[in-house]
Amino acid sequence: MTQLCFIEKNFLVLCFHKIEFPVFPLNGAILFPGTNLPLNVFEKKYIEMVDYALSKDRLIGMIQTKQNQDFFNVGCLGKINNFSETPDGRYQINLEGVGRYIIKKVFKNKHKFITVNGHIINYDNYFKKNNVSLNKKFFIDL
Predict the structure, then answer these.
(1) Residue 64 near residue 75, CB atoms below 8 Å
(2) What confidence tens digit (pLDDT) does each residue in 104-123 have?
(3) pLDDT grade for 93, boundaries at 50, 70 and 90
(4) Distances (CA, A) of 70 to 22, 30, 90, 99, 106
(5) Neighbouring C-beta atoms of residue 9, cutoff 10 Å
(6) Looking at domain 2-136, which of 2.40.128.10, 2.30.30.280, 3.40.1190.20, 2.30.130.40 is its CATH number?
């Protein structure tokens, strides 16, 4: 994992963690940092994606798609914090949002599911650790 941190005007710190993880393009299912998203996974390629995530670091990126099926640039990375396997082979999982990410590269041929190389934006933790009120700051959405 690569980490890049930027300090701007001595108060804003953006940290980017560069990692590869699977993405779950599911329009209408929105995950935000600090929230939970229960999912019922039944398609074979996404069952394989959950198996992959469970064998690694339990991370899955939730992402929305445009009308032309391309991904939007920003999504939310979720960590599987609870799962069960049903008798018919489906997974019932719960994702906890851990941070936003920016897609840098898409890999469509490595697995049946899609993985991306993404930069995790980790500025929320900076504000929580330093007790800074978020409503007093101005942010430009990446």
Answers:
(1) yes
(2) 999 988 899 999 998 888 65
(3) very high
(4) 15, 17, 27, 21, 10
(5) 5
(6) 2.30.130.40
Token pair listed for 142: 């990446």
The model carries a pTM of 0.75
Written as six digits, the tokens of 139 are 């942010």
Write the pLDDT tens digit of every residue in 36-86.
999 999 999 999 999 999 999 899 999 999 989 899 999 999 999 999 999
